[in-house]
From TrEMBL:
Record's protein name: Chorismate mutase
InterPro entries noted in UniProt: Chorismate_II_sf (IPR036263), Chorismate_mutase-related (IPR051331), Chorismate_mutase_GmP (IPR011279), CM_dom_sf (IPR036979), CM_II_prokaryot (IPR002701)
SUPFAM superfamilies: Chorismate mutase II
Record-linked Pfam families: CM_2 (PF01817)
Gene3D superfamilies: Chorismate mutase
Length: 113
């Protein structure tokens, strides 16, 4: 863990352990709301992935496009306000990309059966 991230952890999160359970429940409710929004956005993304997959299939394009993946990661990491989080953002985006490729592969297998 980077030194700055360690300090952030100590400043922002160590205090949680001294708070009462009600505060923890409130924080978890905030996480639940964020997760709810993430799921809605990911579902929208999946719809677009299906459209892209159809386009790629029609134009005989491969599912994987490493240049696009690198650009997507680079662009989205630039939106991160805290540079200490950039490694985690990259990992998050790589997971999304991996799932996106899996969805396209699975969909093509179903369509080919």
């Amino acid at each position: 863990m980077g030194e700055n991230l360690q300090k952030l952890w100590e400043i922002k999160f160590v205090n949680v352990w001294g708070e009462n359970m009600k505060d923890l429940q409130e924080m978890r409710k905030r996480i639940d709301e964020i997760d709810k929004e993430l799921v809605k956005l990911f579902e929208k993304r999946l719809y677009v992935i299906f459209e892209i997959n159809e386009y790629k299939k029609k134009h005989l394009l491969p599912i994987e496009d490493k240049n696009r993946e690198r650009e997507l990661i680079k662009t989205n990491v630039s939106y991160c306000k805290n540079p200490e989080y950039s490694t985690y953002i990259v990992e998050f985006l790589e997971c999304i990309i991996s799932i996106s490729k899996k969805v396209q592969l699975d969909y093509r297998k179903i369509k080919n059966d």
